[in-house]
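Standup, Tuesday
Yesterday: got the pipeline producing structure tokens again.
Today: sanity-check two examples.
Blockers: none.

Example 1:
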Amino acid sequence: MSLPVVVLGGGAAGMMAALSAREAGAAVTLLEPNEKLGRKLYITGKGRCNLTNNTTPQGVLEHVPRNGRFLYSAVTRFPPGAVMAYFEELGVPLKTERGGRVFPCSDRAADVIDALFFALKRRGVTLLHRRAERLVLERGRVVGVTAGGETLPAGAVVVATGGLSYPATGSTGDGYWLAEQAGHTIVPPRPSLVPLEEAGDTCAQMQGLSLRNVTLTLKNQKKKAVFQEQGELLFTHFGLSGPLVLSASAHANWAKETYTAVIDLKPALEEAKLEARILRDIAQAPNKAFHNFLEGLLPRKMVPVMAQRVEIPPDLPVNALTRGQRRHLVETMKAFSVPIAGTRPIKEAIITAGGVKTGEVDPGTMMSKKVAGLFFAGEVLDVDGYTGGFNLQIAWCTGRAAGQGAARYIEEDGT
């Protein structure tokens, strides 16, 4: 009997790799130190599990800022449509929401995890709750894994241990040093899809305030926009968070540039129309104090911050505003700036950028170009996407390619 494919990591990529290898005829052992599989899946999409994006393979690649070309083969062979069909066959009805985001109809991430878990059970995948300690290598090939003080023989090994984001879910970077043991280059891990820290205390004054239907532009020190999108953001005690901010963080090169977040508080109104509205409101209540007037334009928590930013006394009657003061107010509402000091720590990031250098991995099979029989899948690789289901799509398609590649390797190798 052939030696098994040993899959390291019971997250999205690992479970897909294990199922794919088993479906291809290989015996499979899945190693996961947590008692429950897919712990990170529980928190994706705010607990609803945004499991892919209903788009084309090209649509996926357009939302992968780094090494998208590496994914071409994997995402073409297992595109979002095939992923959706796969989960519906496992008994998870799906729905598509705004922006192509795909969720289970139940809005429960647990349904996705349960479907994968029971599929693993039905198909006879052996599950061991152990952490891989090292790879066993002989003459340029992997022949086993040491886990729990025991060596498990393997015909092939798939490393799908995740990155460094949310370490409580088991993403502790194990795959990086296992890859280094095999001679791979690790592109330094860094946070992506992560909240941003401000340089100052403006956001802290509005802590807890959520803004919807605003436009966020992230500009570098040359005032070039690297990101612009409309949506929702949140002011926190440290700076900015929320969907817009997480997406913006993935577009920045934090090692080389500094950034300013610029918020258009009234994207539906051009400056001239906003000024006309202000003049109309002033005419209706000319003696109203400026701070009371602002409450008709902005959320209450933002009023004192805006008054301070435009340097207009809160008690000034609005009919006393000069043309220059009105102009300054309009410009500030259309471009409320927050200097950014950097990102929150990697443990707070949704995704880890960096990882195993893609040039050292075969993009068709996910097999190492350095060690025969060693495969990689998911976040451990130096490839990541924007929000909207793209990172789970990466996990599914690389996991599928690695599982099938590992099963084929064992069959051809005869181990």
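Example 2:
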Amino acid sequence: MTGIFALLFAAALCLAGYGFYRNRKMYRVIDRMLDEVLDGEPVSVSDIREGEISALAGKTKRIQEKMELEIQHARKEKEQVKSLISNMSHQLKTPLAGLMMYRELLEAPDLPQEKRKQFLEKMKQQSEKLDWILKSLFKMVRLEQGAIVFEPGAYSLKETLLGAVNTIYAKAEKKNLQICTEPFADRSVLQHPKWTGEVFENLLENAVKYTQPGGEIHIRVNSMELYTQIQIQDTGMGIPPQEQTEIFKRFYRGKAAEHLEGSGIGLYLSRLILEKEKGYMTVSSAPGKGSTFSVFLQNCQKEEGKLSSP
């Protein structure tokens, strides 16, 4: 019996020793993996064979990968914020400088009344430009962050398009530009009239701005199986091929348009709006031959009193 007890005692000691050794080994492995995570080094799992430790190493590796993705995302957001602030400062600098300059000129006691009226009109224009830039920036940022939520529905395309044309008609008339809208049957498309109207206004504003006096702007509507295509064509300066993908980026201004007033927000904002409406936009252009912007909106049908979209 004494021999059996001795053997059992020895076995217990061996198990305890193995357990202590195994726990120390696990502690060392965990300690090493934590150091690798903290130092930003890859978690070494290739030499780990034991089941529990191997599973722990796999989870640690996934945690590290998730942390790295979060860090990369935070860095990207930081760069985006820096870029946004820099671009906003650049956009606001010109109208603010203009306002300050005209204010100083208006302070002159011997300024003729006619000049005073001119400077006041210039201040009004700069104030309106500043207001438009700020509103566009706020819309852009809120759309990017998902703070603005709107549900598109089935609405009349003709009403939305007509409202946009009426908004810019006076500017086109002032430049002696002819707006030609080809007749089309009204239809319901998936849109939010206010936001879609802003897309059309941005495109028509650009057409007026970049077309020489006496030019033309053509509006066409083409029905397709799933989408309705709305084309806005001008006879303006056109866009080089290498810039046609760049113009939809935030704050981008083409080289030929740098001397003209603009912010580089309109097309980017329009693209964001169309994405919310499950639509899209393309451009076809050549320098000196004008540009054609095509907006594609989903068709909607009325079925048994209900509205549906493909």
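Quick observation on example 2: The longest helix spans residues 51-106. The first strand starts at residue 153 and ends at 156.
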